[in-house]
Design goal:
The termini are far apart. The protein has no helices and 21 strands. The chain has two domains: 13-80, no CATH class; 154-343, no CATH class. It is rod-shaped and about 135 Å long. It is an all-beta fold. The strands form six sheets. It has a five-stranded antiparallel sheet with strand order 10-21-12-13-18, with no helix packed on it. A five-stranded antiparallel sheet has the order 11-14-15-16-17, with no helix packed on it.
Length: 343
């Protein structure tokens, strides 16, 4: 005879059992995660317990009253096949995971944090980096082990206070070159005290240069104008960087006292990304020497006309002060070339 009405689906169930003896606790940990109280049949000493006599949360079964040592607790769990069973905390280990079962595409952004990783879970062996790890190397963003000295950045600075040759150190690819021309000396006054004018400062040039294909450069350092007892004074010399491709010139300052109240004109500059003309010397009586990019010009003292009436300039490329009749002006300062080197 055929069945009338809605057909009954064939459905399998999974049955689990949990036994406890000699316990005096109200809390017990099941070996599975129970979906609800209704999925359990709980008996104590063969007596079925009503649902309000216990509660379940995950794998934890809690009785309303603690057992006594002679009680026998039996728990039968029935889970329908197809229902979701959540594994208990810590119940899934390496042996239960298939090879490559967790892939990048299955991981949410920020799903793995430091707190979720076991100590030493990722070691050097798991890193597919190039180079050799050691106490003197570090792993950089290009996934390569390298010493700090091999990394691009500021490496060294060379200062030239006399003419010579710059030779590129190993690994250097770029330099910033600063060229400061020499200052001019001040002049001593004529009989009417109208040409005691201060010296000017040399010009300054600065440039970033790619030296990947440059190995050397010729450095020229300009000499500061020598001090005088009359007028006009002595001009400063040019400072130059020349590498065959780039030429930077910090021009020396011009002579002072070529005319009444005529201070030494500042030196010009060329070839740099930045070119600054030096400060013009003061054209007034006993004028102060011009400051350069690297420090102060000379100053005068009293008006007695002796050789000690002025003080030396201090900054590379700065000018010296002018003096009254009979004084001897100080030498102006030489130029300088500074090369800041980068890998």
């Amino acid at each position: 005879m055929s069945y009338m009405g809605k057909s009954v689906d064939n459905k399998s169930s999974e049955i689990r059992r949990f036994d406890v003896t000699s316990s005096t606790s109200a809390t017990h940990t099941l070996s599975w995660t129970a979906p609800s109280e209704q999925s359990l049949i709980v008996t104590i000493n063969g007596v079925k317990q009503h649902e309000d006599a216990y509660s379940v949360s995950g794998t934890t079964l809690t009785l309303t009253s603690a057992l006594v040592a002679t009680d026998k607790l039996e728990v039968i769990g029935i889970n329908d096949i197809g229902s979701t069973i959540t594994p208990g905390p810590g119940s899934v280990n390496e042996s239960q995971l298939g090879s490559d079962s967790v892939s990048t595409i299955k991981l949410q952004d920020n799903a793995i944090t430091n707190a979720k990783m076991a100590d030493d879970a990722v070691g050097i062996a798991e890193l597919s980096a190039t180079g050799t790890p050691s106490a003197s190397t570090a792993l950089f963003g290009n996934n390569a082990w390298a010493t700090v000295s091999d990394v691009s950045g500021l490496t060294s600075v060379q200062y030239f206070t006399s003419s010579g040759t710059w030779t590129k150190p190993s690994g250097i690819t770029k330099v910033i070159v600063e060229v400061q021309g020499a200052g001019s000396s001040g002049s001593a006054a004529n009989s009417s005290n109208t040409r005691n004018c201060a010296g000017g400062a040399g010009g300054y040039a600065k440039k970033l240069i790619d030296v990947s294909s440059i190995s050397t450069a010729t450095i020229t350092i300009g000499s500061g104008g020598a001090g005088v007892t009359s007028y006009p004074s002595n001009a400063g010399g040019d400072s130059i960087w020349s590498d065959g491709t780039n030429t930077l010139t910090g021009g020396g300052a011009g002579a002072a006292g070529t005319g009444n109240y005529y201070g030494g004109p500042g030196g010009t500059a060329s070839g740099g990304d930045l070119n600054i003309t030096g400060q013009h010397g003061s054209g007034y009586l006993n004028g102060k020497g011009s400051d350069s990019m690297f420090g102060f010009g000379g100053t005068y003292g009293s008006s007695s006309g002796s050789s000690t009436d002025s003080f030396d300039p201090t900054g590379y490329g700065s000018g010296s002060a002018g003096l009254y009749i009979g004084g001897t002006t100080k030498n102006a300062k030489d130029g300088i070339v500074i090369v800041t080197e980068y890998k």
